[in-house]
Structures are given as structure tokens and as C-alpha cells.
Amino acid sequence: MPRPVTLFTGQWADLPFETLCAKAAGFGYDGLELACWGDHFDVDQAARSKAYCKGRWVWRGF
Description:
Layout: E1 6-8, H1 17-27, E2 31-33, H2 43-48, H3 50-57
């Protein structure tokens, strides 16, 4: 059974989230593991908003 290949976004924190998603999808990655710095994932906002989490979970780049 094949496993998805993901990319951790920490080393790419200088890129905007949407740009990184598009690049990772173009590189052939199956998904992203989001860093909690840069604009990739805001823990405080995620704790307050289910919509924010859903927006990060399902991004159109993948």
C-alpha cells in the first residue's frame, strides 16, 4: 500500500502559504505538514475558528 509523501513547511516559511502549496503540488507532493510560524498555520486563530482550520486543511493547490 503506497504512503503519501508530504513536505514539512518549516524550511519554506519565507514563502506565502498559497505559493508554497502550488509549488509543492507541482513538485508532486501529496500534502503538507504545516509549520506553526510564518503564515502557514496560526495556532491561536485555529483555536478560535473552525473555518480557518478547514481553509488550511483543504487548499485548492492539492
